[in-house]
Design a protein that fits this description.
Blueprint: H1 2-31, E1 33-37, E2 43-48, E3 53-58, H2 68-98
Antiparallel strand pairs: 1-2, 2-3
Helix pairs in contact: 1-2
Protein name: Nucleoid-associated protein IAA20_04225
Coiled coil: 8-35
Main location: cytoplasm
């Protein structure tokens, strides 16, 4: 009976260590800067790993008061690009902790 308890304690220590590593990895990811771009980099969107947009840069060359839809489309494209980059990096960093765990 005692042998099983020792294994359980060892397993609990491993789980706690993994939790601490996950928290550190998530914090590092949240602070990381990502840049999404539209076609020809006319619009760039900067965001952090916690999916907060920090900056939008628009090349003045594409600002056309006659065609606001083009600018809107480029902004959407750049925002979606930065979100995709964040999600891919999040999966690469955090996936090793959640792989095979039910509900993740």
């Amino acid at each position: 009976m005692m042998r099983g308890m020792g294994n359980m304690q060892g397993m609990m220590k491993q789980v706690q260590k993994m939790q601490k590593e996950m928290v550190k990895a998530q914090e590092a990811l949240n602070e990381k800067e990502f840049v999404g771009e539209s076609t020809n980099s006319y619009v760039k969107v900067h965001g952090t790993g916690d999916k907060k947009i920090t900056e939008i840069i628009i090349d003045p060359v594409i600002i056309d008061s006659e065609d606001p839809e083009m600018l809107q489309d480029l902004i959407v494209m750049a925002v979606n690009d930065v979100i995709t980059k964040i999600e891919v990096e999040t999966e690469a960093v955090m996936g090793k902790y959640t792989k095979g765990m039910p509900g993740f």
